[in-house]
Design goal:
This protein is an alpha/beta fold. The protein has 5 helices and 6 strands; from the N terminus they run H-H-E-E-H-E-H-E-E-H-E. It has helices at 2-24, 30-49, 76-87, 108-127, 154-165, and strands spanning 58-63, 66-73, 94-101, 136-141, 144-151, 172-179. A hairpin with a 2-residue loop joins strand 1 (58-63) and strand 2.
Length: 180
């Protein structure tokens, strides 16, 4: 219980800082950004509490009450449960479930390789002037990169895919980005 409370406090603290930054980009008011960040934190906490969902593998973003779930899960049941949990959270208006089902039977080396690819993709996104890396979640499993989050334009969405595809070790890219 203490672990959950500390995690919730940490999520809320990062949410407040992130909300201020999000509000400055002109897309949402500070109030909207705070509401969305609080919703993200509550959804993440609910996923952590649920024994079926592996919250560490599920990335959560919220934009104007729409929650996007991205990442990889082991089964269709886990994907469905993640949607159900997210929809039950106060402040959630709708859920975009972009989770991909990919059973986990990876070696430690494969997990490390995927983490390296994720890092390279994030670095490439940071280095590309067409993308705002802070808007893009990157998840990798077996060399398959999934991009999630909310971006400002269709051009930014296309640029993110282009950047990710050029990274060494990427087998394919799944684009779950949504335009705000």
């Amino acid at each position: 219980m203490l672990k959950r409370k500390l995690l919730a406090i940490g999520l809320l603290a990062s949410a407040v800082v992130g909300a201020g930054c999000a509000a400055q980009n002109g897309n949402r008011s500070t109030g909207q950004a705070l509401d969305d960040t609080g919703t993200t934190a509550r959804v993440k906490a609910a996923l952590i509490d649920n024994p079926t969902t592996k919250a560490r593998d599920i990335h959560v973003e919220t934009n104007r009450g729409t929650v996007q779930l991205a990442g990889f899960v082991d089964s269709q049941a886990e994907k469905s449960e993640a949607s159900r949990v997210a929809k039950s959270v106060n402040g959630v208006q709708s859920v975009q479930n972009e989770l991909k089902v990919q059973p986990a039977n990876r070696t430690a080396g494969e997990v490390v390789d995927d983490a390296m690819i994720t890092g390279k993709v994030k670095a490439a996104l940071i280095g590309d002037s067409r993308t705002k890396a802070s808007q893009i979640d990157v998840n990798t499993k077996e060399g398959i990169v999934e991009l999630g989050g909310f971006v400002d334009s269709p051009q930014a969405k296309a640029a993110a895919v282009e950047v990710a595809e050029k990274v060494n070790g990427v087998r394919s890219v799944r684009n779950s980005l949504a335009v705000k």
